[in-house]
């Protein structure tokens, strides 16, 4: 008889600090299928995480969500600044990172990533040939290296995942990775 290890506890991190310039309005509050995108994302993170933090840019903007917020590690640092802040604030080794503009995010994909984790600093899904580091599992141990990249002006989350030697997990159905950046994406 084989025993399966107990899954490692996970903190959820909702990335919702962007300016939403292309969308023209705050994506976190944008209603899709009857609820704001932030509510959809929090529901997914609640399925996989013991605690959920919101990287809201300034650390105050989304108080109405009723979740603990973190301010970006560097103002204007993009999603990487939110990830660094979340990793530094997390109380668990693993952090499920999710961008607010992914309305079809998947708890099942996060579970697959957690099952694949073997101590790497990140486990990133690849769908339709593209890495999806904003719907990925990051280890708190990645924070110092990510902060160093951010301090050096390197803001690409995909490049950071590659530089850290992230484990890549192919996901057959790319639907979870759809994101909403501009009004045309809502159609």
Describe the structure.
The chain has 187 residues and is α/β, with parallel strands linked by helices. The chain has one domain (10-169): Spore Coat Polysaccharide Biosynthesis Protein SpsA, Chain A (Alpha-Beta Complex). The protein has helices at 37-48, 78-89, 107-116, 143-151, 157-163; strands spanning 10-15, 31-32, 35-36, 51-55, 68-70, 94-99, 122-127, 130-131, 135-139, 167-170. Strand 2 (31-32) and strand 3 form a beta hairpin. Helix 2 packs antiparallel against helix 4 (143-151). The N and C termini lie far apart (51 Å). The model has no long low-confidence stretch (mean pLDDT 92).
* CATH fold-level name: Spore Coat Polysaccharide Biosynthesis Protein SpsA, Chain A
In N-to-C order, the SSE pattern is EEEHEEHEHEEEHHE
Beta fraction of the residues? 15-25%
- The gross shape turns out to be globular
Structural class, please?
A: alpha/beta
Q: Name the CATH superfamily assignment.
A: Spore Coat Polysaccharide Biosynthesis Protein SpsA, Chain A
Q: Termini distance?
A: 51 Å
Could you name the key traits of this structure?
two-stranded antiparallel ribbon, 27% helix, single chain, 187 residues, eight-stranded mixed beta sheet, Spore Coat Polysaccharide Biosynthesis Protein SpsA, Chain A
